[in-house]
Amino acid sequence: TTKYPPSLIIYDLKTDNLLRKYVFPQDQVKEDFGFANIAVEDTDCDKTYAYAGDLGKPAIVVYSWEKNDSWRITHHYFNPDPLACDFSVKGHNFSWTDAIFGLGLSAPNADNFSTLYFHPMASYNEFSVSTEYLRNQTVADDNFDAFKLLGSRGPNAQSSVSFVDRKTGVLFYSLVNLNAVACWRTSNNKYLMKNQGRIYMNEETMVYPTDIKVDYEDNLWILSNRLPIWMYGKLDLNEVNFRVFSAPVVHAISHTACDITPRSDILEKFVNKAKNITKDIVAKVKPNSSTTTKPITVLLTLSCLVRFLAT
């Protein structure tokens, strides 16, 4: 039963005062709608835009604070993939046809537009579009090819929520079937499985990660709530069913494909290994000689190492 139509409720967080309530127009709210997530582009206060994904009737409703108006944009990339509708969480198997769900906004570019990364929940793929094409419905309709397919997360890798840390440019997203949260650096021009990292995976504590955010102090926050168990089974009240996780972003992505910090420890490890290999070669060639290597040998080895790391 719907008691109130979907709306945006906007507060001043410094005073807790309600600034505005915007009710979505009736022609933008379709039967079986479901507005599960919203992304807000607010680098310019007066030109703030909100993007609400409709997972029931695939679309994005775009709201302009300056115009106090909204419009509905559709694209076939918003639709669920019929081959990705089967889910399995904690022994419960079910089919969901949720359309566009994950929404993540990058930092603005030189033209003050952001990139919106998005995906349906029933999908293995990630997509993107510049907000330049979303801020005007006519422009979006006339530039159908502006929506891009980035690549696949791989089998069994359906994702619900996502969020972009604008400081590091890392896209975080849930993997609901795998009880995990993963990441991808948006500065990497290839969305391949080998370029995606696992932040955290746990069959007990990370059952159905359902929300992800990064705060203004560069901390990653994740919520898990075991929703499928509640829907298709019964929650055990003797267990912890709802969890909030937090970690600094740089720590969360450390030692993953999303790591942005210089890995001096890895370089040191390879240098030491190269020295040991050189010593072994010298010992075999001249068994009675000292294990001290000549500088030229070490330099050649390090030169090869540098070329290896560069590739």
Automatic annotation (TrEMBL):
GO terms for cellular component: extracellular region. Its main location: secreted. Gene3D superfamilies: TolB, C-terminal domain. InterPro entries: 6-blade_b-propeller_TolB-like, MRJP/yellow-related. Keywords: Secreted, Signal. It comes from the Eukaryota. It is found in: Secreted. It holds the Pfam family MRJP. The keyword Signal applies. Belongs to the major royal jelly protein family. This is Yellow-f. It comes from Bombyx mori (Silk moth).
